[in-house]
Amino acid sequence: MQHSHHEERPILLLEVLQKLYAGILMQRLAPHWPPLNCQLGAVSGGQPIEALFAAQHMVALATVTNKDLLFVKLDIKGAFDNLRHASVAAFLARMPESACYEAMRLLTLLLDQKIQFSFLNTHWDIHSTNGTPQGGSHSAGLFARTLDHAIGTWTTDWEAAGHIPLYPPLWMLLFVDDILLCFNGWRQAAELLPTLGECLSELGLEINFAKSCLVIRDARHLSSSPAQPHNLELLRRFPWVHHTQYLRKSFGYHLDVDALHQQAIQSIFAAWGKLKPVLQKAH
Amino acid sequence: MVVRMLDQYIGSAFLWMSPSLYPYQHFKHKLLVVQTTLLIESLNLYIPQLADDETYQLLRLRRHIVKLWIRHMTPHGSWTSQFLRRYWSFIGHICRQNFSGKHPARVMLYHVIEQHNHRLNRPGPWSTPHSLVAKFWKDNKMEGDYIHVASDRDAWKALTNSFLQWHNIPLERTNVEFLDAQPWDHPKYLLRYQLAWLQVVFINATATFFEAVWLDQIHGFSTWTIEAEAVHDVHHSLITGLTGLCLHLCMLGQPFSMQLAVPNEMLWTVVIANRNSINETLMKCNYASWYQLFPLNPSECKHRVLRSCFANFSSPLSCQA
User: Fold this and answer.
1) Is A248 helix (H, G, I), strand (E, B) or coil?
2) Residue-by-residue DSSP string for B123-173
3) Is pLDDT above 60 for A88?
């Protein structure tokens, strides 16, 4: 299989001291973070099972009520690498005065990120202008909170504009950069999705349409949709599917009732395949 | 160590998603089957080339023992048990959460409950955590609202075992099994299989002595006897004898499973009457991983193969008398 250079992502080795320092800063900032809106990943107490449980029950409810809900699974292109420093700075600027020193140090750490490359006898530096370094003790937490805060602002605007989520107060499930939006119909999706795209682009993030998808029960409903034609353009850019994978688990319509159970059994055999050679050596 | 590795490494691959898996009967069964199969393979309990019916009997015995042994060995029970425990504790956990966007599982549970309170647009039951817990509540004739009970973490946790029992998950942990009769199709098989992981020992005891006979692959029929220093009851003699026998056999090897055949009706009644102390004694001995005790009826005792074995007992057995 051939890969283009865009698909290559080098491993970033960060200095241990920097990791420790960033970890301490994050710990000190923990009591001062603004309240979370919907983020479940890289935050204290958040766990993927909550997102998975909610996602499964959203579909289950849609199925028993015969409602044609639209789910949009969003994949963000190079999420950690592209987060705009300005948006992180704007987020950290909201911290209270008692935490401004730590916030400032964290921002400095982010802005002064220099990546050193060595290949054979050649060495060169790249000054990182975007993103949080992958593998940093602060990266996932900072990314998750910045994104959550921005999304929270937009969903508040949606509600102020009179939109109501189907399962109040849930607009979406957010696990670090895995987003699953739930809309009550084409009109709502066509109206709100472009604004979410704007929100992401303000953060320097971009939707990866190839890996994102629109999960629908029946595409025929589109012909009877009263949505504005120009708004549908964005929706047309997504692949339309009956089901997909969310958090690496089957999600969507027209799935077997025990699809997730089958996947659980498959996980057992996959893990067994890895453990078996170890056990054979032990005998 | 094998059990722990399986439990922790493989179990963790799927147990995290337990709360999103409705505990269907077939799934619980499948989990037990898979865990037993993988454990059998890990334990390397070898079955030699034999006739089909003999192989079948050994396969059945091996599977039966390992299936029960899982319960004894794993601190949190089988995968089915762990899965149900997680399912239960997660429901309690989300019931205690605030209703807000940052707790989507709590929000969706609320919407599911709301939907249950209204008409569904399709026939048949709707399998959700709410329907399951509501059924558990009703079947156990429990009062109040489960969401209210879940707000008390300890009260909810105290219901875990009831939830497991409601799913027919046995809770006791033991590696001693009392059978009503010998487990083979024919009594001759008691002396037929010479496997490293299975040992069959015939025992007899009176108030003054304890005696054991087994067939050794190299030495043929072997006996071990202990005489009481003072006259006690049969129970005391049995307990002392079993402890001594295990200590003696430990020097010769340690099989995975030990079958203790009791060819004496009187002695079997004593065994049954003292299950708990025998259970405790054998667990303490730590000789085999699994023990099976069973009686031999008079017609089985009369079998030609067994008679040659019982001839090694110093006194005639009551069933042969």
Assistant:
1) coil
2) SS----HHHHHHHHHHHTT--S-HHHHHTSHHHHHHTHHHHHHHTT-----
3) yes
Task: Give dist(CA A67, CA A221) in Å, integer.
Answer: 11
Whether the predicted interface score ipTM is above 0.90:
yes
Q: Is residue A272 less than 8 Å (CB to CB) from chain B? A: yes
Calculate Rg over the CA atoms of chain A: 21
- The answer to whether residues A204 and A179 touch, using CB atoms and an 8 Å cutoff, is no
Delimiting residues of CATH 3.30.420 domain(s) in chain B: 177-310
Q: Centre a 10 Å sphere on the Cβ of residue A99 and count the other Cβ atoms it contains.
A: 18
Q: Does A265 touch chain B (CB under 8 A)?
A: yes
Mean pLDDT for the stretch of residues B130-148: 95
How far off is chain B from A161, nearest CA to CA, in Å? 19
The β-bridge relationship of strands A213-215 and A240-241 is parallel
Neighbours of B22 (CB within 10 A): 18
Which phi and psi (to 5°) does residue B314 adopt?
-70, -30
Under an 8 A CB cutoff, do A268 and B10 touch? Answer: yes
Extract the tokens encoding B67.
């299936």
Question: How do residues B102-115 score in pLDDT, each as one tens digit?
Answer: 999 999 999 999 99
> How many CB atoms neighbour CB B6 within 10 A?
25
CATH 3.30.1600 for domain B177-310, yes or no, is no
User: Cα torsion at B98, B99, B101, B106 (round to 10°)?
Assistant: 90
